[in-house]
Each structure stands twice: as C-alpha cells, then as structure tokens.
Amino acid sequence: MSADENTTEPDTTPQPPLLRVVRGEPDDVELAALTAVVAGLAAGDSGEEPAPRRSRWADRAALVRRPLTPGPGAWRAQAFRR
Questions:
Q1: CA triplet 47, 45, 26: central angle to 5 degrees?
Q2: Which residues contact 70 (CB under 8 A, 6 or more apart)?
Q3: What is the per-residue pLDDT across 2-12, written as a single tens digit (0 to 9) for each?
Q4: Does the global pTM surpass 0.70?
C-alpha cells in the first residue's frame, strides 16, 4: 500500500455563505463586527449554566409552616419539628 491510496481528496463543493446581506450596504467594519458576534455566539458554551444555589435566608419554604394544633403540649409540637 502506498501513501497516495490512503489520502482523501479535500471536498471542493462550494459551501453556502454563513452570512448574507439582505438589505443595505454595510462596510467592512460593520461586517467584521457582525462576524465577530456570530462567531462568539457559535463558540459559546452549548450547555446551560446551573442555577445558582439559593441562600437559606431567601428560601420561601421556611415561611410555610404546619397548622397550629391546639391542646396540651401544642407548644412542644410546634417548637420541635418532626
């Protein structure tokens, strides 16, 4: 086997343009800025960032409590969670 048999020829089919100007006449600086923005968005992280953990001080679940139970020992039931 020779090295020539293992090489693949580059794909010479024309690629569609990534950006197309539909209206107006942007100059080179405007096209460069647009290209930089699109390239930056494409290179960005594809996954979402995890949501930041909520502080226990801001947790609204702490405001919700069990209903009061009247009767002897009710203060003990409310003071110590089960």
A1: 130
A2: none
A3: 555 667 777 78
A4: no
